[in-house]
Amino acid sequence: MNKKIKIKDYCEFPKAEEKEPSYIGLKIEKNKKNNERFHFIFPVSYYTEEEYEKITENTLRNDIKNLLKAIYKANISEVYYNKKSQEETSPIDAYLWIIRNYLEEGYYIEKEIIYNKKNQGKINWKRTIKNNEYLIYNNNIIYTKFITKQSINNISGILTLIHKYCVYEAIGTFSFLFDINLKNVEIPQANIRVEEMISILKNEYTKSFLDSKKELLINMIKMLEWLADENTSYDMFSTYDSKFQVVFENLINERFGNVKNIEEYYPFGYWHIIGKEQDYKSSYLREDTILKEKDNIYILDAKYYKYGYNITKELPNTSSIAKQFIYGKYVYNKYIKKANSQGDIYNIFLIPFNGQGNYIEYIGYSYGNWSEDEDKIKTYNKIYTFKIDLKILVNDSFGTKQKNIDELIKAIEKVH
User: Fold this and answer.
1) What's the pLDDT tens digit per position in 153-164?
2) Single pTM value for the model
């Protein structure tokens, strides 16, 4: 970046009453490294008016980094399995890791090992013994010359040159997030094709044992493989507003989900076709996050709605309520009734909002008129609905996963 810029001037903060944004995240003019062309759109009402006026540049930078990582993780997650999206999604985590590592450690410098017959350095006994230059005195072997080992910095090594290339590319794209002037970064002199760089790094990875070096290598490989793909574009640093639902679902799953074999909780529909011996399984209901604590099971359905701005329009509809009822009854029959468990099934809708520091807020519950008497006394019959602070979710600032879980369960217990 050639001059100091104000991040806020390049950001958009949509309000709920305004037209929905076309996308959420970062846009950079394709194939450009002029960072003054970037544009970032936040989720609707991510900041209040008061927050917007007082927000600092550092806060904006951190929020942008965390939102980019949330978008990236959602695109490659199992929640949103889309092979094309996964292949084209830019490895934002690798870019940011390479920049942070450079700021903390500088360029990677290869160590070149030199062996000589000087008395300086660490003795290499294997080579010294093979050298056969020794005397025998009083039945003891005395070596007259030692082979010693010294390591020197090789600043012209190929790995160093590739690292400089990666650092320059990463900062050229994201210098505005770290307030770095690209003019102060060394221009790489690695006159080698990206494909060759990848091959060299992969070969080095197979020979490396140091974890810190392997982490550096794998991040450079991820970044270079993405750059080498002709189909990639900087639009992959963003997501359509309608697809931010997936980001929200993934955040809920990261913070609260603790069941690995989640497919066992899915209810399925079946088709019986005349003339066919076997019934066919239909698609399962859209997966939710499953939280299991003690004997209780909590079914969490993340809904990226703008509740609080238009209460009659921004709430889950009847089909969503019916889905949760079916889900809850199925899980109850399978894991509570059949297992003679003392636990309960809780159905939960989670909707994002700006809580201004208040993490979770209860707003009410939904139910259907289809419930039979035996269902009405069950906990799954009501879908309790909570607003949850989107900023705290994105920044992962509430604490450990268990602390997140404890806070949600405490909120549920208060209203049940």
Assistant:
1) 444 488 999 999
2) 0.77
